[in-house]
Specification:
InterPro entries: GAG-pre-integrase_dom, Integrase_cat-core, Retrotran_Ty1/copia-like, RNaseH-like_sf, RNaseH_sf
CATH superfamily of the largest domain: Ribonuclease H-like superfamily/Ribonuclease H
Strand order of the largest sheet: 3-2-1-4-5
Strand content: 5-15%
Organism: Microthlaspi erraticum
Pfam family, one: rve
Structural class: alpha/beta
Radius of gyration: 30 Å
CATH class of the largest domain: Alpha Beta
Number of domains: 2
Largest sheet: 5 strands, mixed
CATH architecture of the largest domain: 2-Layer Sandwich
Protein name: Integrase catalytic domain-containing protein
Distance between the termini: 79 Å
GO molecular function: nucleic acid binding
Number of strands: 5
Helix content: 25-40%
Number of helices: 5
CATH topology of the largest domain: Nucleotidyltransferase, domain 5
Length: about 180
Amino acid sequence: MGIIDNTRLNLTETSGSSRWHSRLGHINLDALKLMMQKKLVFGIPSMTLEKKLCGSCLLGKQSRQAFPQATTFRASKNLELVHGDLCGPITPSTLAGNRYIFVLIDDHSRYMWTALLKEKSDAFNKFKRFKSLVEQESGASIQTFRTDRGGEFMSKSSVRFVMLMGLNDISRLHIPHSRTVC
């Protein structure tokens, strides 16, 4: 009895254009065609270029998934979720010396409130006054307050207040797409 070799080679036939595409660093086919026509590279034979997908090129051009355009959660009633953010400093400041714009948006109605502030540190006190006023007027209470972790909402007193009121829903730091409204 002889030795039986069960090893087999799995060969796939590659076209000449695919081979040269790989040899030249995965160059695009238009550039390869130009090289052939103008004889810019010695040794490239004349061949028909086949437009095939190159697995290596596809893997090399991977990118992360696009961010969702809409939030997966939308509040079903007013004040269920309020988004807050601070814009500024704006220059020049207003005649009254305000340099920041505080924006609050109700997720359900998309109603927007704005307030002008002289300093970033004024934002949290303005939010407390806003919360009191809007809850008194509407008869409903703010259930969740979503921010971007800006310093104006991260002081010990503001974090304590938000936690005690059960309002906290802070977006992930430095990931702006995680807060889709404000």
